[in-house]
Amino acid sequence: MYIGRLGDGSHPDDGIYVLFKEVMDNAVDEFIMGYGKRVRIRQDDLSCSVRDYGRGIPLGKLVECVSEINTGAKYNTDVFMFSVGLNGVGAKAVNALSSRFRVSAYRDGHCRTVEFSRGEMTSDETSDTTERNGTLVEFTPDIEIFGRYTFRQEYLEKRVQHYAYLNAGLRIHLNNFSFVSKDGLTDLLRDEAGESSIYPVIYYREKTLEFALTHTTEYGERYLSFANGQYTSSGGSHLSAFKEGILKGVNAFAGKSFSGDDVREGIIAAVSVRLKEPVFESQTKTRLGNTDIRSWIVNTVRHEIEQYLHRNSGVAEKLVDKVQMNQKIRTELQSVKKKARERARQVAIRIPSLKDCKVHLGDQAPGSEESTIFLTEGASAAGSIVASRDVRTQAVYALKGKPLNCFGLRRDTMYKNVEIYNVMRALNIENGTGGLRYNRIVLATDADVDGMHIRNLLMTLFLHFFEGLVLDEHLYILETPLFRVRKGEETVYCYSEEERDNAVERLGRKAEITRFKGLGEISPGEFGQFIGQDMRLIPVVITRLWDVPDMLGFFMGRNTPDRREFIMENLR
């Protein structure tokens, strides 16, 4: 098992959530086998427990199943041939990485409970019980390994929702919330798209392939892909084949040759495959690499979509109308794009205000996943970052003044507005987000009212036109210290007033206090540590696509009185 990253729980891919996944996978496998239709999860800031109602681990095998490598039971069965991992490593790794790991097996009126600390067994008890058959696993990740961390319930909820969507009929209780899906990926898309869906979800399911799709009124395209129950956030061969199958199916039905961009604009879709021998391109299993599945997926998706559209004329009419509208808008944009490119060539061959890095996302070079671009507020802030950055993986783009408020504007705005067009060129997303050059887009603005406004305007730009970048967790906010407290040779950088007060109390009242209002006030010699290995980044997280329009409408729309009332009620 490879956890990928440690983290403090502030990112959904942090290691503590991978530990949860490993325990949860075992509970779901029991449901797949036909044993138990319910899983109960308890979570607080530091600990988590998962109780399934399956068969329960055999009491005589309990210790070795959670502490000895290669003692799993997922071999040579039709059900477990579709598991992500077969080596029985997951529970053992959770055990080794936990300061407290406790597992109880309930089986036919008997119970055995063993407890471990950092992989070493500390107790082993056997008793009679009236509990229903199943297994209870409780664990507390080791603070000496993960540092200070906190389980965030919203991230667990997202993972639990995926489990429910991929395993229709399984009821999962997380603290006081309950999750269950009747229609699988159809429910997932209904939840993601909300009222923005143009037509009912197109859905298909068989033993090894399940997919669902619909079009929305939003810009861009959004996909969720899964392989053997694993969320493949970076896609892979199954997603590429799925996209190709959609295009061929729509064209086969319509008797047209629509382009992929026209068919996919505004689409939201999900695909799940179950393979006997999945090949993942990374240890964290975020991208599927099986090349032999392409023709099977393409042909199945094409055939099923074509047949569905023939059977459902109302859906077919709305889908084709949407594609034709996309085609019309794209054609109208061509002249605007041409003028924007000609204007850009007249200004400079290279993108103005961009200080690029050497390694980019997708390069076959070490560090491509660390590629970062800072969108900064003016030349002053950019100067400090440029002078202290890692030129290999960190690029800087200096904005000129406040960006345009893009809420409610049409797509041609991106080409008519010089600043937005240059940002789009710098990121290489003019023709879609698939060509994104940087894994992290970091908003680096001053810690004042103007800086907050610029930050909100940039987030509006991405959420309105490129929400896929946000949903795929490419957008971040840079945290820099608000205060510097210094006395003699000791300097403390503080990110809040509370940290400042604690530093003053420790260093004494004669300590010198500096308030950083702008990034340009921090010297390059100091700034390097704030964008280095210990850089503080806050991910911009949107859990559901259909939440975006209402949120932007409230905060960036024309409802000034409502917004003013909200601000006044929430002033501290």
SSE topology sketch:
Elements: H1 15-32, E1 38-43, E2 48-52, H2 62-67, H3 90-96, E3 98-107, E4 110-117, E5 120-128, E6 134-141, H4 143-146, H5 153-166, E7 171-174, E8 177-179, H6 185-193, E9 202-205, E10 209-215, E11 222-227, E12 230-231, H7 237-254, H8 260-264, E13 267-273, H9 294-311, H10 313-347, E14 354-355, E15 372-377, H11 378-388, E16 394-399, H12 413-416, H13 418-427, E17 440-444, H14 449-465, H15 467-471, E18 475-479, E19 483-487, E20 490-494, H16 497-507, E21 512-515, H17 524-527, E22 536-539, H18 547-556, H19 560-569
Parallel strand pairs: 1-7, 11-13, 15-16, 15-17, 17-18
Antiparallel strand pairs: 1-2, 2-6, 3-4, 3-6, 4-5, 7-8, 9-10, 10-13, 11-12, 14-16, 18-22, 19-20, 19-21
Low-confidence stretches: 84-88
Helix % is: 25-40%
Note the quaternary state here: single chain
Task: Give Rg in angstroms.
Answer: 26 Å
Biggest sheet: strands, sense, closure?
8 strands, mixed
Relative strand content: 15-25%
Give me the count of strands. 22
Give the class from helix and strand content and strand pairing: alpha+beta
Order of neighbouring strands in the sheet with most strands: 5-4-3-6-2-1-7-8
Straight-line N-to-C gap: 46 Å
Determine and state the CATH class of the largest domain.
Answer: Alpha Beta
Figure out the total of helices. 19
CATH names the topology of the largest domain as Rossmann fold
CATH architecture of the largest domain: 3-Layer(aba) Sandwich
The domain count comes to 4
Principal-axis shape: globular
